[in-house]
């Protein structure tokens, strides 16, 4: 089995190494990912413009390739240029964040998986929801850092890929969207549907006192806040039972959502 792994956090993000480690015992793995963070870029493609591809080493000294483009670009480059044979499966992630609900169309992680499906390759998008109540820790010098514990995410991903290797993808499923909580109460995976939305968005300016710190940091050089605005967001707090958001955030268990790319609605009389 040949697997292409990409992401939207960048080739040196810890999640991509975790994804590789999760499946390297059951597949031949190739890593091709953006050279820098490309979160929330959706399915952006770089057409008829030069891209730089560079061989690099991950933290385990294994070979990977960085691409000066988007996550979707990386999937195309990996499939059509880097790999000698087309991959049997594309994995995108493990994303350091959450990708649930119909908002996934803005996710670089999920849209890289969508790009794989457009190439005729089944895919899995994987994300780790980092609970801020438990993930933020201090080192011996008192400096704060985020503890990305990929243990459960790697186990769930490994078991899912092994099942796919042995049984194939289910009929009528193009890709899986997998979300795993870092602070979990159950390891049992729940098959879910997409909730309506993940983020409540609003636009602020320099008069917003509630989010003043977010708005003013960081500013580019020679820039002041008088003529600037910013789109900010908060996680939606309520989700229906059976949805990805409910399983992940309320039941605190892995959520696996089977998806189809064709978004055509049923026939209507119009």
Outline the secondary-structure elements.
Elements: E1 2-6, H1 14-23, E2 28-34, E3 53-57, E4 63-67, H2 71-82, E5 89-96, H3 108-118, E6 123-129, H4 132-135, E7 136-138, E8 144-146, H5 151-167, E9 175-181, E10 190-191, E11 199-204, H6 212-216, E12 230-235, H7 244-250, E13 255-259
Parallel strand pairs: 1-2, 1-5, 2-4, 5-6, 6-9, 10-13
Antiparallel strand pairs: 3-4, 7-8, 9-13, 11-12
Helix pairs in contact: 1-5, 2-3
Structure description:
Helix 1 (14-23) packs across helix 5 (151-167) and helix 2 packs parallel to helix 3 (108-118). Strand 7 and strand 8 (144-146) form a beta hairpin. 24% of the residues lie in helices and 26% in strands. The protein has helices at 14-23, 71-82, 108-118, 132-135, 151-167, 212-216, 244-250, and strands at residues 2-6, 28-34, 53-57, 63-67, 89-96, 123-129, 136-138, 144-146, 175-181, 190-191, 199-204, 230-235, 255-259. By secondary structure, it is an alpha/beta fold. The protein is built from seven helices and 13 strands.
Biggest sheet, in brief?
9 strands, mixed
Overall pLDDT score? 92
**Which CATH-level-2 architecture of the largest domain?**
3-Layer(aba) Sandwich
What sequence of helices (H) and strands (E) makes up the elements?
EHEEEHEHEHEEHEEEHEHE
Q: What's the number of extended β-strand segments? A: 13
Task: Pick out the low-confidence regions.
Answer: none
Strand content: 25-35%
Helix content: 10-25%
The CATH superfamily of the largest domain is known as: Survival protein SurE-like phosphatase/nucleotidase
Q: Count helical runs.
A: 7
Radius of gyration: 19 Å
Distance between the termini: 47 Å
Give the CATH level 1 class of the largest domain. Alpha Beta
Question: What's the arrangement of strands in the largest beta sheet?
Answer: 3-4-2-1-5-6-9-13-10
How many domain regions? 2
CATH topology of the largest domain: Stationary-phase Survival Protein Sure Homolog, Chain: A
| Backbone shape | globular
Helix/strand structural class: alpha/beta
């Amino acid at each position: 089995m040949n697997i292409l792994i990409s992401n939207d956090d960048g080739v040196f993000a810890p999640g991509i190494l975790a994804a590789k480690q999760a499946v390297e015992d059951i597949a031949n793995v190739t890593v091709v990912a953006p050279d820098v963070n490309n979160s929330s870029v959706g399915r952006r493609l770089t057409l008829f413009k030069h891209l730089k591809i560079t061989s690099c080493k991950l933290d385990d000294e294994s070979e990977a390739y960085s691409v000066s483009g988007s996550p979707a670009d990386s999937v195309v480059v990996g499939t059509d240029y880097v790999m000698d044979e087309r991959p049997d499966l594309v994995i995108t992630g493990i994303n350091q964040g959450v990708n649930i609900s119909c908002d996934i169309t803005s996710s670089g992680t999920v849209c890289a998986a969508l790009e794989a499906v457009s190439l005729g390759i089944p895919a899995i998008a994987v994300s780790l929801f980092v609970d801020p109540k438990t993930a933020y820790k201090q080192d011996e010098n008192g400096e704060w850092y985020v503890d990305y514990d990929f243990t459960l995410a790697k186990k769930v991903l490994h078991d899912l890929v092994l099942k796919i290797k042995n049984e194939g993808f289910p009929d009528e499923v193009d890709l899986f969207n997998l979300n795993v909580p870092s602070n979990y109460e159950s390891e049992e995976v729940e098959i879910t549907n997409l909730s309506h939305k993940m983020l409540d968005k609003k636009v602020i300016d320099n008069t917003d006192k509630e989010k003043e710190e977010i708005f003013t940091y960081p500013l580019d050089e020679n820039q002041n806040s008088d003529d600037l605005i910013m789109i900010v967001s908060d996680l939606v707090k309520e989700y229906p039972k059976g949805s990805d958001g409910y399983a992940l955030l309320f039941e605190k268990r892995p959520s696996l959502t089977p998806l189809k790319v064709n978004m055509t609605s049923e026939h209507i009389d119009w």
